[in-house]
Amino acid sequence: MKFAVIFSRFASSVIDYILFGVIYYFLLKLGVAGFIIANLIFFLYRVLASTFLDGTIGMRLLRLKIYNNNIKNVVKREIFRIGSAFYYIGYLYAFLDKDGRCLHDIISDTYVGYEKRETKKGWVVVLIYVLFVVSLLKYSSSFLLNEVGLIGLKKLASSDIYYQSFEGDNLLSLSSDELYLKTLGRKYTVVVDIEGKKAIIRLSNKLKYSEIYRLNFNGNRLIGEFLYRIDLPLQYISSVNFRGKRELLGVSPMGYIVLIDENGNVVAKNKLTNFDAFMLKCGELDEDGLDEAVLLDRNGNVQILKYDNGIKLIYSGKVGEDVIPECFYIDKGIYLVTKANDKNLFYHYTFEGGRFKFQFKKDLEKDGINNIFKYNDGFLVSSIFRNNMSLRIGNIQKLEFYNKNFKKIYNFGNRRARLYAFYVRNVEDVVDLDGDGSLEILLKAVGSSDVYGQGYIVEIYKPTKLGLFLNRILTLLE
User: Fold this and answer.
1) Is the dihedral of CA 282, 430, 213, 277 positive or negative?
2) Which of 209, 328, 366, 477 could form a disulfide with 141 if both were Cys (CB 3.0 to 4.6 A apart)?
């Protein structure tokens, strides 16, 4: 009899959650607010049905009944279901209890389908209270970090929505990773020097040319200002300090790499030979005060270029081991993330005497890292999982900060697929825009159903001390 009731209760829960799904469907357009409202409605439904109908619709259909169901007990029962949900410990306890009661039944003096018995046991009461507190902290932390997101970051400004056409791009023959990099993962903004000041510029790529716009602050909005046109489509862009100031460096689909000054003049141009790059980043490799440009392909081949009265190739070959690279960043050497089964490997190489020198290799117990950025004394991990976006399953965004010991310090949003619409975000750049010594984070936000990233918003965030402290606490609790 006990097991029959347990499995009937499980079946009744399935029926009730189908009802929840119907409620939720009609609130999808409200986003996170709709999700919260649907849960509140479902909570009230369970309380009222259990009090006045002796059970929910699912329970009554399966001839189950809640006993001792005054409203005080029922409200207590529903609240402590949160504790039972902690790794389902409270529900699994029903298999151990001689009367098949869950922990939230015992703490609320209710029972399902049995004659009334003495329900409170000292150690059980302590257990359910502990589970309730732990579960409440865990799920509320997860909700704030992942559903609300960006805890610890203050939005300084955002743009209107921009639209990018991929006309002319051969997307059908690409692998999943390549498709991501040339659509959702494509970089559109960089920070360069214009008239001696840092400025955000945005690339608008066309079939046969590119347009460059400056994004100016207007209160908390970013307003575009047309700067110039380049008679070359650009696929990858970066800012680079080749000549004592930050300028625009770009790679075209035809394999040309070009350096462009603040007035839109092509200062230097070179042709990449037999090299299909998937990532371009610039930074100081050899500590001479000027940047190198580093291009990486999917086979782990790298090309390094430097400016010397033109863009010159100074290295072509492997970084080190024969690996499948994911992403990298530059900080007095190269920090490289590579694939390795269900995790990643993290390599550090310095560049000395025209060659790479191995420093260390560590396991990075995280899979699916699309991009990585130097951030203070650690690194910022940024990923959007395009396949999961298409199927609306699993995680679709990862945005986390790790210290130099590979310990996660801040979670800025690990978003799961939801039925309602929301924005997922990818890091474009990490830079000190205003010169105050604190880094700003440039994000590209796209709709959760826009698997190509054709419509996007540029956002700028600044960390706050109090917000980061709260994020740290929530990350530990999660």
Assistant:
1) positive
2) 477
